[in-house]
Structure formats: C-alpha cells, structure tokens
C-alpha cells in the first residue's frame, strides 16, 4: 500500500492560538498569533477519518499527499482513503508512511461536480462520498472530509449522516482570517433560501463553535447588512434582526457591513448562503489578487527588488496569516456526525489541515455540544 519518498513533508498545521484547546499541552506561537499544536499528553484513542480521495480538482494526487502529511504529523489518527483502489494505491506508492495509519477503502464510482446532487447520492451508492458518509453513519469513522461536489456533500450529509434532532438546516461554516484573528462565516453555501429561524440557529451553533473550538468566550455575533441601522436591510434581515436581539444565549451586537469583516468586527458572521458565498469568494479573490500585485510591484525595479529582500520575512508572515488554506475546511454543523467540506482546488496543505481540523472537532465534541444546547433550549421553552 505504501512506499517511498524520503522527504517527509512536515505538515505545519497553522491555526489561531485559541483554535487549539485543552487537548494540547503546548503551543508554539509566532508574532501574528498563528501556532503549531504540539500534543504531549501521551496516548490518545485513534481518531478515524474517512477522506474522499477522488473529490476535487487536484484528486487523487494532492488529496493522498495531504493525507500522508496529516498522518506524519500526528500518530493518533487513522485515515481511510476512499476511492478507486488501484488509483489511490498507486498514488500512495509515491510516499512513505506508517501502514497502520492509512488504509484504502475501495469505491468504484465518483460523483462529478456537474451532476445533480440528489440523483447522484441516490444512484451512485458506491461513490467515494456515499461510502465515506455511510462509514460515519455506521460509526466506522469519526469524520468525513471531502473536496468534492458541494451539492452532493450537503445532500449526503442530511440524508445519510442525518441532522441532529431540532436542527432545521445544517450550515457550512468556514473560518476566515481577519485583522484580529479569525471569524466564523455562517452560512457560506448550504442554505440559499434561509428563513429567520434558520439564521437564529446559525447564530447559536456558530457561538458554540467559536467558544469551544476557537476558544473565544462570549463571541460577538452580527448579521450581515448594508448598514448599521436596525431598520436597514432586506426582508430576511429585517425579520431576523429582532429575533437575534431578543435571543438570550448569544452575544448579539447588531449588523455588520462587509467592509468591517476583514477588520474582525464580529466573531460570528451570520447570513444566508447566497450572501455568505459571495463574501467568501470575494474575500479569496481580493486576497489572491493583492498578493499577486504586491509580488509584481516588488519585482518591477532594482530598487523595489532590494526593498523586497528587506521586507520579505515580515511580509511573508503577514500574507500567510491571510491564507485561507491554513484554516482547513468548512464543517457542516448540526449533523449527527462530522462532515467537513474543503475547497475544490485544495492543495495538500489544505487537505492536511482539514484532516487535523476533524481531530479538533472530535476532541471538542462540537456536535454533542450543539445537541445539548438544543435539548436545553427545548426543555426551557423558546428563548426568543
């Protein structure tokens, strides 16, 4: 199954300091608050992660490489690479790894991005996505990670893995870099036609995530709007605002305009999926363009090249802190099991970080905390 490559690519899992919680006994932190988690607590139960080896633009090469990096960085994870066995095994031959940590699970079918997701999940029972989610449902894996079809992952998450009782709509919730650290953008792609009650649940689940995974006590919650005034916004925002305002178990601070998001104006940024996806894609596009233009400008003249050499270390660190790939994928919150969607064009680093992220989710029992919160809310009656 395995084999070679003497260079062990070390997977520097870059997360914000508070993203790493009590399961880690030491944290090496740099000046921008990014950190590498060092697990020195001894033996832990193996966390089993199913990875879609056939999903994404760079599959299976980058997916397999990222899985190997994750396995090399931590000894407490077991990875199931799901896909066409001969193809995945051939990719594994390019790497060196511990055989007991990585296992290939054969899946003969692949769900393509352009396929209708509902029909694909229903008909392609032996696809890597369906096989992986069934492993989570049966308890054979603690989490499923994929860079494949977003639609199929959303449908499969709800139909196969299933929603936690009381969750109306599971949202996709990625961490995005900001001037102050990270913020949670919820929802960024799962529920385009959301209702006010959905956004209220997003705010509650997002608050639980930021407090228990990222470590921010009493996280600030804001709803995306075109102005700070309560009376502004479309019908959905106007109807949701007073519900969030009256919600006792979140720290709602009001509206947030898009320009305030990069400054870290809120810890949990609530919106429906259409708005969230536009924010996320614009965020990524502007970041990539800015980095390209800065590099181009620095190489324009001899003077700028000399200046570039002087500022390179500090600039590299700053730009890296705004690299979305360092934060892993977006969890589909509110499911009975862990499902993480990573970018379709993910590199091995992002795949590695997404796998490590699954370990953190498992250790912090995010789904269980959401389940408990909903149960307590039901017992106490409506909080609104």
List the helices and strands and how they pair.
Elements: E1 14-16, E2 26-29, E3 34-38, E4 47-52, H1 61-73, E5 77-83, H2 85-92, E6 102-106, H3 117-123, H4 128-137, E7 143-146, H5 150-161, E8 175-178, E9 181-186, H6 196-214, E10 220-224, H7 235-246, E11 251-256, E12 268-270, H8 273-298, H9 302-321, E13 330-331, E14 338-341, H10 348-364, H11 366-380
Defining traits:
41% helix, 6-stranded mixed sheet, 384 residues, Rossmann fold, Isopropylmalate Dehydrogenase, alpha/beta, disordered N terminus
Q: What order do the SSEs take from the amino end to the carboxyl end, as H and E?
A: EEEEHEHEHHEHEEHEHEEHHEEHH
Structural class: alpha/beta
Considering DSSP H and I runs of 4 or more, what fraction of the residues is helical? 40-55%
Oligomer: single chain
Q: Trace the largest sheet across and list its strands.
A: 6-5-4-7-14-13
CATH C-level name of the largest domain? Alpha Beta
Provide the low-confidence segments as ranges. Answer: 1-43
CA radius of gyration: 21 Å
Which word captures the global form? Answer: globular
Largest sheet: 6 strands, mixed
CATH architecture of the largest domain: 3-Layer(aba) Sandwich
The proportion of strand residues reads 15-25%
- Distance between the ends: 55 Å
How confident is the prediction overall: mean pLDDT?
A: 84
* Count of discrete domains: 2
Q: How many β-strand stretches?
A: 14
Kindly report the CATH topology of the largest domain.
Answer: Rossmann fold
Number of helices: 11
């Amino acid at each position: 199954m395995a084999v070679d490559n003497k260079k062990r690519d070390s997977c520097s899992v870059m997360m914000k300091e508070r993203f790493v919680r009590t399961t880690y006994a030491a944290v090496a932190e740099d000046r921008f608050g990014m950190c590498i988690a060092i697990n020195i607590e001894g033996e832990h139960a193996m966390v089993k992660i199913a990875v879609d080896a056939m999903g994404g633009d760079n599959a299976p090469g980058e997916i397999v490489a990222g899985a190997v990096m994750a396995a090399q960085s931590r000894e407490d994870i077991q990875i199931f690479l799901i896909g066409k066995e001969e193809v995945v095994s051939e990719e594994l031959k390019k790497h060196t790894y511990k055989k007991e940590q990585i296992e290939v699970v054969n899946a003969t079918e692949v769900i393509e991005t352009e396929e209708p997701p509902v029909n694909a999940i229903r008909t392609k029972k032996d696809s890597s996505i369906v096989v992986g989610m069934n492993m989570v449902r049966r308890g054979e894996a603690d989490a499923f990670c994929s860079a494949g079809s977003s639609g199929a992952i959303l449908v499969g998450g709800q139909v196969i893995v299933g929603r936690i009782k009381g969750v109306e709509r599971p949202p996709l919730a990625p961490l995005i870099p900001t001037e102050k650290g990270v913020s949670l953008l919820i929802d960024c792609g799962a529920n385009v036609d959301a209702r006010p009650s959905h956004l209220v649940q997003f705010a509650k689940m997002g608050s639980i995530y930021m407090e228990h995974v990222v470590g921010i006590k009493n996280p600030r919650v804001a709803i995306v709007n075109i102005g700070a005034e309560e009376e502004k916004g479309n019908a959905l925002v106007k109807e949701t605002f007073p519900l969030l305002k009256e919600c006792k178990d979140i720290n709602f601070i009001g509206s947030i305009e898009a320009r305030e998001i990069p400054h870290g104006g809120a810890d949990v940024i609530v919106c429906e999926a259409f708005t969230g996806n536009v924010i996320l894609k614009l965020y990524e596009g502007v970041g990539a363009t800015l980095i390209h233009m800065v590099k181009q400008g620095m190489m324009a003249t001899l003077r700028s090249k000399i200046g570039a050499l002087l500022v390179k270390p500090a600039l590299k660190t700053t730009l890296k802190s705004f690299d979305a790939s360092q934060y892993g994928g977006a969890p589909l919150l509110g499911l009975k099991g862990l499902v993480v969607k990573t970018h379709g064009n993910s590199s091995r680093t992002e795949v590695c970080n997404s796998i490590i992220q699954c370990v953190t989710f498992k250790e912090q029992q995010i789904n269980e905390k959401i389940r408990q919160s909903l149960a307590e809310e039901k017992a106490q009656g409506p909080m609104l």
